[in-house]
Design a protein that fits this description.
The protein is an alpha+beta fold and 129 residues long. It has one domain. The protein is 24% helix and 31% strand. The chain is built from two helices and six strands, in the order H-E-E-H-E-E-E-E. Strands 1-2-3-4-5-6 form a six-stranded antiparallel β-sheet, covered by helices on one side. It is globular. The N and C termini lie far apart (67 Å). The model is unreliable at 1-22 and 29-33 (pLDDT under 50).
C-alpha cells in the first residue's frame, strides 16, 4: 500500500510538472489596456460628457438602478467605481471596464428618458454608435 501511495504521488508530481510553464515563456498578466476615456462622446444618439468628479446626484441614479435590479448588486462585471457621464437633465451613463483575454471588455448602465438600459461589449465603448 505504501509503495502504491508513493507511486501515485510521484506520478502526480510528474504530470503537474509537465503541465506547468517551462520558465522560458513570457506570460503577461491579465490587465486592462490603458484606454483613455474621452471627455465627450456619442452613444445611442446622445452626446455624453464625462463627470470628472461625480456628484451625489450621479450616485443616486445608480443606487436606483441597483434597487430596481438587486440581482446585479454582486455582479463582478459591475465591480469597482465606474466612469460617469452625463447628458441632459437626469440622464446618466455609467461604464465599467475590465481586463479580458485579448484586450478589454465593458459594461454600461444608462438612464435615459426615465428608463434604464444596459449594454456591453469588447474593446472601447466610445468607438460604437
Amino acid at each position: 500500500m505504501r509503495h502504491r501511495l508513493c507511486g501515485i504521488v510521484l506520478l502526480m508530481q510528474a504530470v503537474s510538472a509537465g503541465c506547468g510553464l517551462s520558465g522560458h515563456e513570457d506570460v503577461d498578466p491579465l490587465t486592462a489596456d490603458s484606454i483613455q476615456a474621452p471627455d465627450s462622446w456619442t452613444f445611442s444618439g446622445t452626446t455624453w460628457t464625462r463627470a470628472l468628479t461625480p456628484a451625489d446626484d450621479d450616485w443616486k441614479v445608480l443606487k436606483v438602478f441597483f434597487e430596481q435590479h438587486p440581482g446585479y448588486a454582486d455582479s463582478a462585471d459591475l465591480a469597482g467605481e465606474p466612469l460617469v457621464y452625463r447628458a441632459t437633465g437626469s440622464d446618466r451613463l455609467f461604464i465599467w471596464t475590465q481586463a479580458a483575454v485579448g484586450g478589454s471588455r465593458w459594461q454600461l448602465i444608462r438612464k435615459q428618458g426615465g428608463r434604464f438600459f444596459q449594454d456591453f461589449g469588447t474593446d472601447v465603448p466610445w468607438s460604437r454608435d
